[in-house]
Amino acid sequence: MRYSIFSLAAQTLAGHRGWKPAWRDAAPKAEYDVLIIGGGGHGLATAHYLASRHGITNVAVIEKGYIGSGNVGRNTTIIRSNYLLPGNTPFYEHSLKLWEGLEQDINYNAMVSQRGVLNLYHSDAQRDAYARRGNAMRLAGVDADLLDREQVRAMVPFLNYETGRFPIQGGLLQKRGGSVRHDAVAWGYARAADQRGVDIVQNCEVTGLTIANGRITGVETSRGPIRAKKVALAVAGNSSRLAAMAGMRLPIETHVLQAFVSEGLKPVIDNVVTYGAGHFYISQSDKGGLVFGGDIDGYNSYAQRGNLPVIEDVMESAMGLWPGLGRIRMLRHWGGVMDMSMDGSPIIDHTPVDGLYLNAGWCYGGFKATPASGFCFAHLIARDEPHPVATAFRLDRFATGRVIDEKGAGAQPNLH
Ligand SMILES: Cc1cc2nc3c(=O)[nH]c(=O)nc-3n(C[C@H](O)[C@H](O)[C@H](O)COP(=O)(O)OP(=O)(O)OC[C@H]3O[C@@H](n4cnc5c(N)ncnc54)[C@H](O)[C@@H]3O)c2cc1C
């Protein structure tokens, strides 16, 4: 069923009784050409691009929970391509371009909203760093505007400009950045892949990888063994666990990241705003809730829940930036498990096991990457060579020293 104004009108006249489930609840077959582990944004996008761009449709996405139960349904929905380093900029810009055409491509309303992402600066040194970043972006064909304090004040007048511990001096704006409804991304990719014949298998946990003579031959799951010619890992915060099943130790640590949403308010903030003097960012959802977050919890965990010290830390930054927030009520908070790589950049690569591919290390920036990640991972799996915009995301860079340390923070997950 194709979604359109005509299908909506027809269903309206029929009392909305004819809508079909968005995807089949497939049972696993005995064998696939490609088996993708992880039904998050990246796994589902990979399946869609394998089927739609490479004609490979004997594909299964194996998800241990339900579609959208991982980080794809837990993130704060920000998309942007304001990166500095050559290894990152073309990839994230490719992703932003795919976001711009996504709804037509997958015939699904993902509520892509290019409302602008504004990174605030609070010192001369930070302004210089943002000017450099903005110049690098423009040289790479990415939009960027450096704003002074009065330009920022005209956009977001209610922030604390003068009396905060770190007064706002200005900001770097990417107008094409914004937000996308995250669960719609999962549902839209699942539906698009399913329509081309991909099996979306939910409630099926991969418990082992079957390897013979250095080559992957299939997986063990909670619903029995499945054979596969190629297996692709896209399990985000569980990457180290799955890689360990193949005897691999990844340069990745898993940490919790929390997010928060307030009660619904009338429209109050049009853009995504990030605080430059602490780790805090905020936007407003289409339902009216203020959506915000901050730093990762400072310990390793695979539990999708966080702890109180980071909540206090995030609220302190919130009050420092926007004191009026003290008068709103919190509705919910939650956590997700992040695959923090040691240089803050992702991995899209082969592994030492023939036929086993790895997509991991997204830290807390993987939602914006979803389309390009799936696009480039599908390219790698189908052609056995990296896509031109993802050549830097190699697993061996931690051995060769060719790391992509966007923030110059070294191997410290809490600073990425
Ligand atoms: C609170 C929070 C805020 C964030 N905010 C942003 C943001 O604003 N912008 C941004 O760009 N990024 C953000 N991120 C990061 C982003 O959400 C992730 O980097 C991205 O979603 C990871 O890729 P994914 O969607 O494929 O992951 P997931 O949705 O986590 O998918 C992985 C899937 O693998 C499944 N799985 C794991 N083990 C197995 C197994 N053994 N067998 C079968 N299936 C398995 C899991 O159940 C899960 O569904 C945020 C993350 C969090 C938690």
Automatic annotation (TrEMBL):
Matching Pfam families: DAO (PF01266)
SUPFAM superfamilies associated with the record: FAD-linked reductases, C-terminal domain, FAD/NAD(P)-binding domain
Subcellular localization, as worded in the UniProt entry: Cytoplasm
GO terms for MF: nucleotide binding; sarcosine oxidase activity
Keyword annotations from UniProtKB, A to Z: Cytoplasm, Nucleotide-binding, Oxidoreductase
Residue ranges annotated for the FAD dependent oxidoreductase domain, each copy included: 33-379
The protein's name: N-methylglutamate dehydrogenase subunit A
Taxonomic source organism: Bosea lathyri
